[in-house]
Amino acid sequence: MHPWTYQENFTDISLNVSESELLHLASSQNDAMRRRFSTKNSKIAYKDEQLVYLSTYIFYLIWLYFILSAGYLGVLFVGPRAKTFSPYYKVGVLLILVSFPYLATPVEMFFLKMFTYMIETLVGNVYERPDFEYIIDYNAIPNLFSY
Hints:
The protein is mostly helical and 147 residues long. It has a domain of 54 residues. Helix 2 packs antiparallel against helix 3.
């Protein structure tokens, strides 16, 4: 035997451990290593933090929109110059203010995805996107944008 070779006879050692326990131990060790040395979990935490921030921001913007809309409708219907506006104008403004949040999002997403598609086509990253949907998502408003 070579002096630098280490050899041990493992046939005498019995560990009374089942194969499923070894697989569970190996799986838990792999998960621990993945959590310790992966940036995926920190990316997820960062994205969650961004979503909470944006959700709070959107919440305040929605309330601001409703307050400004209610103020304008108050001036329009019961303000000092309420009699100067026609009933058609009042109903039209009311319908526009009520339907605007529902109509603005699909149109905004269409333009955002179209702009993203054009930029990624120019840069050459078109096929690296996971969604490939560069059309209006009309699920929120059925049959409005059907093509």
